[in-house]
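Q: My collaborator sent me two sequences in one message, no labels, and asked for predicted structures for both. Can we handle them in order? The first one she listed is below.
A: Yes, handling them in the order given. First sequence, followed by its structure tokens:
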Amino acid sequence: MSPRSSSLRGGAGTADQVAVRRHNLAVVLEHLRLHGSRSRARVAAETGLNKATVSSLVSELLGRGLVTEGAVERGGVGRPGLVIDLDGSTYAAIGAEVNIDYLSVIVSNLRGDVVAEQRVPFDTAASDPRDALQRLAGLVRDALATAGPAAPVGLTVAVPGIVESATGRLVKAVNLGWRDTPVVDLLVELLGGPGYPVVLDNEANLAALAEIEARGGAAGRDLLLLTGGVGVGGGIVADGHLLRGARGFAGEIGHLQVDRDGLDCGCGRRGCWETVAGLGALLRRAADEGDPVRDPNVDLLGRLAEVRRRAEAGDQRTLAAIDATATWLVSGAASLVNVFNPDVVVLGGYFAVLSRWYVPRLQQGLAEQVHAPDAGGCRVEVSTLGFAAAMRGAAHQAALAVLEDPVALPFLDATDESTGVPT
């Protein structure tokens, strides 16, 4: 073997070792995130890594400020050891959402705990994109100030439309009226060039990620999330993976045509699903123009609380409006269940707020309209995240960039980077 080939082989071996260590660091972090505090010995036993490796990995994670060391673990086998846990104070992830009638931001730590939240009613569709993003940038700054000294590791922005995540460009959001909008470039400018990455993604996809994260092992590997907003959004999880499509544009279920003779849709077509099952359709049926529940300058949660109050009081117009949208919700959802055969359909957004009326109708409708026996085994559940689902998914995605690649963060103190051990 020539000296050159020997050198190349040694270089490849070193690269392989670095990749393996990076992978193992992520394994330990993911284990702590999913299962909580553990001693080194317990982490080793549960992950299959040897104790010496885990000890070295934990030393590096401590040096990078990603884990903390606490009390002695009790009740374990063998000699008691100090427990380690994800550090909730050193780093933070930011999730933001631009929607039709509100802007919102949350900051969470790497354990997923929300440490700050900002939300304001905002008539985004009537505003210039730059003005809306200027307001959003202000909310991000306010939320970070409230969250304390934790260093942000990333910001993910959720929007209701077709996005190119690679370029940070919003291709089209018909309900916002935005087209070819460089959302990431504008936000980076308005935030003054933050030292953390800014990423753009579709709101329904991020909400679906949040549902999986919140449900853990109970989520099932095939999930369909239906979010009721001004439009109808969808996130599809197939075999445990978010279905994004060839170019990341999958999930635009609100623009399935369900009524050829229906209303014109903002997308330029007629009779799209969201024109008959979206929040706009519900409110048009439930109240006249000028009614506070149709005022985009009034907080959405307050407007929906009023709709629910009227329904609970037996207001016939409100109940008829809910019934009409439920009919269309069932029609579209049954078609999607026939195509994807999910374990569970999760109702989010305004469908969740009014779930008392929508869940029974959907359960009955799926039983009647899905071709497979027993609705193909599909059950109906309600999101527990409400309108925060997209933001929670956005913050989780921002955190994953670090949790899946811990070496992206620097050592906080003088440390031997080849071993991760403080010097």
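Q: And the one she listed second?
A: Here it is, processed independently of the first:
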Amino acid sequence: MSHTPSRQDFDHYMAPNYAPQQVIPVRGEGSRLWDQQGREYIDFAGGIAVNSLGHCHPVLVEALKDQGEKLWHLSNVFTNEPALNLAKALVDRTFADKVFLCSSGGEANEAALKLARRWAVDHHGEHKDKIISFYQSFHGRTFFTVSVGGQPKYSQGFGPVPGGILHADYNDLESVRKLVGDDTCAIMVEPMQGEGGIVPGKQDFLQGLRDLCDEHNALLIFDEVQTGVGRSGELYAYKNYGITPDILTSAKSLGGGFPVGAMLATDAVAKSLVIGTHGSTYGGNALASAVALAAVEFIDTPEVLEGVKKRHDLFREHLETINRKHGVFKEIRGMGLLMGAQMSDAYEGRAKDILPLAIEEGLMALIAGPNVLRMAPSLVIPEADIAEGMARLERAIERLVAAA
């Protein structure tokens, strides 16, 4: 007997840790989606900054089909050509000398944190174990990464958190100076906080972190899970600042929708990840690596990266136009195609109320906390889709204002 799944099936069969919208998308093409009833939506959410080339981009589909007829998976007893090609592509395009492949951003950050601790033990001893990160940061859902993340709500209720983790204020270098010392093994930072509200790091703040790490023989880890692979207008956001980390993590846009993650590091640091110290069952999977390589090679071109910057300006212009009419935003910020609109005082905490209204108008968007409307669309979203999506967003905001 055939069965057409419904939203009620989620409540019946799935663990209750999510609260998805009522619509169930079944097909996507470019920056548009269609649900079970055939209704169309414009996608400004991008799977939370994952669908870097939209839905079913032909370059990624071709890579998946081609590899799917050759080789899917091998254990880490073997390597494979797609994984080696992806690693080479990432090394050739970044500061890094070595790559560890995994399946998600959380895994990539877990690997980065373990590597930092192992490196510190190898070079300085057991006492050098402190990790500094920032309030409102988000680094994943493993117990280590959620503890390093600066939002206690994600780690509460699971028992004692790992020790040696300190939190400072983002974009406040003095708050870091108060915590850093010779027992610091790493500072972990997002060059632009994503879940924390789409807050770009200041140039002098990030440079100051680099200087503090150098002064105290600590490692600088850039979490670029959300900002990486073209999202900021450069292949990785560290290039916007001219500041080189020791370790960088990547996922989300890296696979264009296929689960994949990577940790990139210099030779001097990566040497501590010796045989047996870490692993990932699906890391370096041939299917994921082939798709990720296709995504990286397509995105890392002047046409796409310059297009991201141009689209950023279009998004900002539309949002500012909407705001002049309705006064719902206090600030519009972000880099490239990761943008946030902070709600004005009159609409404090109301960002989440826009999402269901937008769905009804045929638009998918996101929030970054209760007070920031977030947009992370395809890096190649057509300008016509931007204009139509913004028209739908404005209708949703008009309804929000009318109901206030």
